[in-house]
Structures are given as structure tokens and as C-alpha cells.
């Protein structure tokens, strides 16, 4: 296979991590992008970003993942945060019921600020803490079905389902995007070079299709 | 009002719901004093109680590597200070990041009350950063100033960064919000802060902190020429160049210095915001406080000089306009 430099990708998707304070958003991010977990992780101030590329079908999909502080106060930078997002992981902590109760509010905010085509996955993190569980899988699954979102339980500590959760979201976005491309014209090869396909809000290069990126 | 404050314990779960009812976690407990909660609570009290567990969640994530916090009482001291602060400063309350600023003070000053007042004074300096509305948060106005500083001293870099994040400079959010706390080790941050605050020293500073100080009194102190030597190096330049109206703190120029230091790599390697963050993250543990401050002073000087030059050229333009208008008037008068 031809050599690919880091910046070679076919699609770039912006994904946001949201949910209450202390549910493990930053650790999910570091587990997925660097395979790291820290028991002494600090609260997030402002926003952080990290990327990782994965393969979907024969395409390279690069995820730019945004992580933010959970405190309601930081919603003030919401517009910048959600702008152009095509996927979201809405995280709660399976050991703290209140973080699950707040999922509804997060979902509303997400839907208020993003495109209707956004791919959302409800993520119950800290699933390794079995003896402390306060939210049942059934309850969360029922909620996800009702709200039409994907659902998975994860453990950033044990690296359980983290890969799956992100990969699933990215794959689903990819499906939405390629379906859109097909809707635009029957022959995908006829797409103009470097065309931007927006599945998120109108003004961002959130889902960029790069044609012929390996020619370099 | 909340028995946990001052008890040597902290709260990490909500004690109250948004409509002012005690939560199930609380009613489950056997604490007898909770029965008084049935009385309807004042709105301020509800807002305050709602922040208490948030403070707790952050306290248990602050400076965990330090032995100091292995002692629960020390943990509770940090929580107490922030809990009381959020009550007396209702405009700000509690905002994530404040534990980072408060922790060194809590550790350095043994007496809890003294530590509280020290933190309260620090917040007078910092509080505008934490002030938020539904649409924005205070620190963003400092990010705007940072953008204008970079635009003035390195237009090419500014253009590049603008392309990457629309000129929001969100990647510098944390550094300005908690004064580089996350970029330096605990010991180094004490050194950096002392250096910064000495450079920003202004003899009227303490007067401005007192809300009941008469503005004339401040002017009287500021007007004394012989005081110039007393100002910190950073502050003195504002006074000397007559740009006292500027309210950009040293931290903005420190950040500008860091960006300037990474200028080549940012221009060449940063193709996305994540690259900017990655390059900037490399400064963690690798910055020399003294060097960073002297870089910041250099940029400050350059920025102020550029600005003054800009003002002069504006002045020159104005003179030309005036001359043209005058000539026009003269011609009209002559024609008559």
C-alpha cells in the first residue's frame, strides 16, 4: 500500500464530546486518540482538541474531536464549540444518576445548535465500576431508542468499547456523507475536486472530501 | 446555611434540585438539620447550593500529585474557600478553573481565613475573566486583545491562525484563564506568578481594589512623578508611553511570546487547530519563567511602539485632511 502521510485523509469530521462535569469526557478522548488514561486527570478549562484517523471501507476518515468543560457556565462558548459538528458523543457516568438525568438537557442543546443530520451517540462511561452502578443499561437503551440516538456503555479505564463508540459514530457520519454525495449526483466520480459536503451547519468545512489526496 | 462548609468535609453530589428541594441523596441521609430545608429557600441560596457539588468535583481533581491533598482536611480547606467565595461574589459564583488559582494560595497560607482573603484579592484582578453571560465568557475579551497583539507584531502568524480558528484564539483560553497554571510545575508557577505580579505592580493597585476608594485619591497617588520607579517594569511602560487606558495584563503578552517562539512551526506544521494545540502543549514543563517574562516585555514594547506609530500616522493623515478642507474654504471665500 502506498505511503500515507499524517495529513492524508479522505474525510475530516468534527465530533464534539459533551456531558456533565466529571463523567470522563477527557479520558475517553485521550484513550481514543493516544491510548492513555489518567486517574489524576484535571478538569478541562475551555476547550481541547485532538485528532485520530481511522479507516472506513477503503477511505481514511480523520476525526477532529473537541472536548470541553462540563460546567454549565461554559455553555457561553457553545456557538464556537458546536459550529460545524457532524457527530457528538453525549456522555454520562453510570455511577451517578444525576448525570443521566441531565442527558435530556444536553440533547436539547445539541439539537438547538447543530444540523438535524448530526450523528449522536449516548455513552454510559465508567462501566467498570459495576458495584457502584446507578443507571441500568435498559433505562439508557430505552432512552436512546426513544430519542433516536445510538447507545453504548464504555470504560475509558479498561479501554472497553471506547474504540467501538468512536468508530461507530464516524462510520455513521461517513454513511450520511456518502449518501448525500450520491444524492447530489449519480456518479460520485464526477464530484468536483475538493468539494465541501456539509452535513453540519452551513458555514464550516466540517466534512471535507479530498479527491486524489494520495497523488502527493 | 450548609452544614458541610467548615466541617472538614466536602460535597461532590448535589444537595438541592433546581426548584430548591433537597435531593434524594440528602433526604436519604440521617442528618437532622435537613428538615429545615422544607422552608422555601431564597433564590440566591438555591443558586449557591447548586454550585457546591461542582466545586467538590473540581477540588478532588486539583493538584492530585501533591501529598498535601492526601489529607482530607486540606481538601476541605480548598473547598471551603471556594464555597464561601461563591457566596460573597454572586456575580461570579464558581467557575471551573478557580480551583487552579486557589490551590497554591491554600497551600502557602496556613490560616484558612487569611488564605480566603488573599484569594479574594487575586480574584479582584482575575474575576472579569470568569464572568459569563448566556452568550460569552469574560476571558474572550482578553483573547480579542491577544489577537490584536499578534496582528500588530506578526501579521503573517495572525493571518495563519485566523484561518485555522476564525481568529477566536480559543487555544489560548486556558493559559489566560488560569495564568499558565497547567503549563508549569507547581513550584515554577509560584515563581512565575511572583515575577508577573511584581512586573505588573502599580502603587494605586491596592486603592483600586477597595471599592470605597475615591477616584481622586487614586489620581493623586498616580500623579506623583517620583513614584515612577515604584511601578513594575511592565506597568511602568504603560505610564511612560501615556497609554494608561490600555488594560491588557502581562499574561496576554506572555502568550504572545509563546506563540512568537513557535512561529516557524505554527506556520509550517499547523494545518488544523489540533496541530496548534499539539505544538502549544509542548511548552508544558519546558518554559523558563524568567525568559518567558522577558520575551513578553519585548513584545509589549514592540506592540506599544507600533500602536504609537499608528497613532502618529493617523495624526499625519488628519493634518492633510484639515489642510485640504482649509484650502477649500479659502478658495470659496476668495471666489466670493
UniProtKB/TrEMBL annotation, chain A:
Membrane topology, record value: Lipid-anchor
Compartments where found: Endomembrane system
Gene3D superfamilies according to UniProt: P-loop containing nucleotide triphosphate hydrolases
Main location: membrane
Official protein name in the record: Ras-related protein RABA1f
GO cellular component, one term: endomembrane system
Record keyword Lipoprotein present: yes
UniProt keyword annotation of Lipoprotein present: yes
Keyword terms, alphabetized: GTP-binding, Lipoprotein, Membrane, Nucleotide-binding, Prenylation
Source domain of life: Eukaryota
InterPro entries for the chain: P-loop_NTPase, Rab_GTPases_membrane_traffic, Small_GTP-bd, Small_GTPase
Protein's organism: Apostasia shenzhenica
Lineage, top ranks: Eukaryota, Viridiplantae, Streptophyta, Embryophyta, Tracheophyta
Family of the protein in this entry: Belongs to the small GTPase superfamily. Rab family.
GO molecular function, one term: GTPase activity
TrEMBL record, chain B:
SUPFAM superfamilies according to UniProt: Ypt/Rab-GAP domain of gyp1p
A molecular-function term among this protein's GO annotations: GTPase activator activity
Highest rank taxon of the organism: Eukaryota
Domain Rab-GAP TBC: 38-200
Pfam family, one: RabGAP-TBC
UniProt-listed InterPro entries: Rab-GAP-TBC_dom, Rab-GAP_TBC_sf
Gene3D superfamilies referenced in this protein's UniProt entry, alphabetically: putative rabgap domain of human tbc1 domain family member 14 like domains, Ypt/Rab-GAP domain of gyp1p, domain 3
Protein's UniProt name: Rab-GAP TBC domain-containing protein
The organism of origin for this protein: Apostasia shenzhenica
Amino acid at each position: 500500500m502506498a505511503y500515507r502521510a499524517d495529513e492524508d485523509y479522505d474525510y475530516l469530521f468534527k465530533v464534539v464530546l459533551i456531558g456533565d462535569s466529571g463523567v470522563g469526557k477527557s479520558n475517553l478522548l485521550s484513550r481514543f486518540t493516544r491510548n492513555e488514561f489518567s486517574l489524576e486527570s484535571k478538569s478541562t478549562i475551555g476547550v481541547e482538541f485532538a485528532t485520530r484517523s481511522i479507516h472506513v471501507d477503503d477511505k481514511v476518515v480523520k476525526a477532529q474531536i473537541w472536548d470541553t468543560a462540563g460546567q454549565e457556565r461554559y455553555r457561553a462558548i457553545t456557538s464556537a464549540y458546536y459550529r460545524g459538528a457532524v457527530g457528538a458523543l453525549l456522555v454520562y457516568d453510570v455511577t451517578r444518576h444525576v448525570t443521566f438525568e441531565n442527558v435530556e438537557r444536553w440533547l436539547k442543546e445539541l439539537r438547538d445548535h447543530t444540523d438535524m443530520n448530526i450523528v449522536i451517540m449516548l455513552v454510559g462511561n465508567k462501566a467498570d465500576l459495576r458495584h457502584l452502578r446507578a443507571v441500568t443499561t435498559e433505562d439508557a437503551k430505552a432512552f436512546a431508542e426513544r430519542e433516536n440516538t445510538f447507545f453504548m456503555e464504555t470504560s475509558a479505564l479498561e479501554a472497553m468499547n471506547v474504540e467501538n463508540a468512536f468508530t461507530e459514530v464516524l462510520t455513521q457520519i461517513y454513511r450520511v456523507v456518502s449518501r448525500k454525495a450520491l444524492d447530489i449526483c449519480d456518479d460520485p466520480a464526477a464530484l468536483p475536486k475538493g468539494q465541501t459536503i456539509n452535513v453540519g451547519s452551513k458555514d464550516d468545512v466540517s466534512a471535507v472530501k479530498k479527491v486524489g489526496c494520495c497523488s502527493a | 446555611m450548609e452544614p458541610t462548609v467548615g466541617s472538614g468535609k466536602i460535597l461532590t453530589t448535589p444537595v438541592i434540585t433546581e426548584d430548591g428541594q433537597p435531593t434524594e441523596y440528602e433526604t436519604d441521609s440521617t442528618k437532622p438539620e435537613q428538615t429545615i430545608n422544607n422552608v422555601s429557600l431564597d433564590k440566591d441560596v438555591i443558586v449557591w447550593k447548586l454550585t457546591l457539588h461542582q466545586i467538590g468535583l473540581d477540588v478532588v481533581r486539583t493538584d492530585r500529585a501533591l501529598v498535601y491533598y492526601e489529607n482530607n482536611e486540606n481538601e476541605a480547606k480548598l473547598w471551603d474557600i471556594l464555597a464561601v467565595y461563591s457566596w460573597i461574589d454572586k456575580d461570579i459564583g464558581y467557575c471551573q478553573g478557580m480551583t487552579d488559582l486557589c490551590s497554591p494560595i491554600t497551600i502557602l497560607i496556613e490560616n484558612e481565613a487569611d488564605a480566603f482573603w488573599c484569594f479574594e484579592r487575586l480574584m479582584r484582578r482575575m474575576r472579569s475573566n470568569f464572568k459569563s453571560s448566556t452568550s460569552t465568557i469574560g476571558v474572550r475579551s482578553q483573547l480579542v486583545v491577544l489577537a490584536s497583539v499578534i496582528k500588530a507584531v506578526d501579521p503573517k502568524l495572525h493571518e495563519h491562525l485566523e484561518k485555522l480558528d476564525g481568529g477566536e484564539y480559543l487555544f489560548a483560553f486556558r493559559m489566560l484563564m488560569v495564568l499558565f497554571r497547567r503549563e508549569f510545575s507547581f513550584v515554577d508557577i509560584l515563581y512565575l506568578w511572583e515575577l508577573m505580579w511584581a512586573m505588573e505592580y502599580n502603587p494605586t493597585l491596592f486603592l483600586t481594589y477597595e471599592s470605597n476608594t475615591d477616584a481622586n485619591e487614586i489620581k493623586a497617588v498616580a500623579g506623583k512623578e517620583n513614584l515612577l520607579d515604584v511601578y513594575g517594569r511592565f506597568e511602568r511602560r504603560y505610564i511612560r508611553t501615556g497609554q494608561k487606558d490600555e488594560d491588557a495584563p502581562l499574561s496576554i503578552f506572555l502568550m504572545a511570546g509563546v506563540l512568537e517562539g513557535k512561529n516557524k512551526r505554527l506556520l509550517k506544521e499547523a494545518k488544523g487547530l489540533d496541530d496548534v494545540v499539539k505544538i502549544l502543549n509542548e511548552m508544558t514543563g519546558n518554559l523558563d519563567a524568567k525568559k518567558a517574562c522577558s520575551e513578553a516585555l519585548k513584545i509589549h514594547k514592540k506592540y506599544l511602539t507600533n500602536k504609537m506609530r499608528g497613532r502618529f500616522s493617523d495624526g499625519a493623515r488628519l493634518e492633510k485632511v484639515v489642510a485640504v478642507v482649509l484650502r477649500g474654504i479659502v478658495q470659496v471665500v476668495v471666489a466670493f
